[in-house]
Amino acid sequence: MKFMEQRKKIIILSVMLAADQFIKCIMNTFFRDFDYSFHDLIGFRVYLNQDELSIFNSELGLQVSMNVLVFINIAAFVIFEYAIWLLKKDGSYNKVIKIGFLLLEGGMVCSLIDKIFWKGSLDYMIVFHSIVDLKDIYLFAGAALCIIGLVPVAASQKKRSSHKEGEKIWRNIKK
Length: 175
Description:
It is built from 5 helices and 4 strands, in the order αββαααββα. The chain is of the alpha+beta class.
């Protein structure tokens, strides 16, 4: 069963990666000079982002090098795999978290491919004054789903924890 599940995951990640890269190749080949937007809220503009490749550079201004970003990408992927293992071990790995992690992992793999083969990120969609690509949508949707999926897990953990605390207090009262 685990082999089939892993195989399915690899196929889905491959399709996500192929879709992201195929769209980038089409946009770079045929629409490189295309620029259309509605008040910079929504539209299309092809832009090879080689300066602000991550939140570390764009939002925090840290100017992290490409090699460090590749290392962070790989480390994040390993950490997410470990988090999945922990959630499965605890019995807290639900469908929403599963889909969220799959989207996050897909986004991380696409990001790694961008850094290695494009030497940046070929962004092409304008969404609320930002230029993004399919990978960014994977990452944003995956993070949102993980948060949504982890809310009931956190609530059940809190219930279990408070129940154990209640049992300890009750035992001390009985003594």
